[in-house]
Amino acid sequence: MGMMKEFQEFAITGNVMDLAVGVIIGGAFGKIVNSLVQDMLMPPIGLLLGKVDFANLFVDLSGAGHTTLEAAKKAGAPTLNYGAFINTCIEFFIVAFSVFLMVRWINRLRQSAAKS
After folding, report:
1. How far is CA 73 from the centre of its chain?
2. Architecture of domain 3-115
3. Which end of the chain has fewer CB atoms within 10 angstroms, the N or the C?
4. CA distance 9 to 3
5. pLDDT of residue 8
């Protein structure tokens, strides 16, 4: 079988299409989780912790004493944005837990189908 024909079979089979759909759905899901963390979870958590805005937590490495992350970015100052890192970690754990629940649900469906 020629390489082009083999590639055509590979590209047309369900595996590639399933992967493409998964990537597209995953990207959209990532945006939803990002919004959930930044817009719904972090504001109440920040309020409970003394009105902390995690997105604005940073260390100014320039020593200029910028009071906000926006001001530091405008000045081109190097910063360690640990608040953004905290948000990203929370997003990861939500996505990982969601995938775990989905895999767990699929495994239960497979087990019940196997018993039938």
Report:
1. 23
2. Orthogonal Bundle (1.10)
3. C
4. 10
5. 78
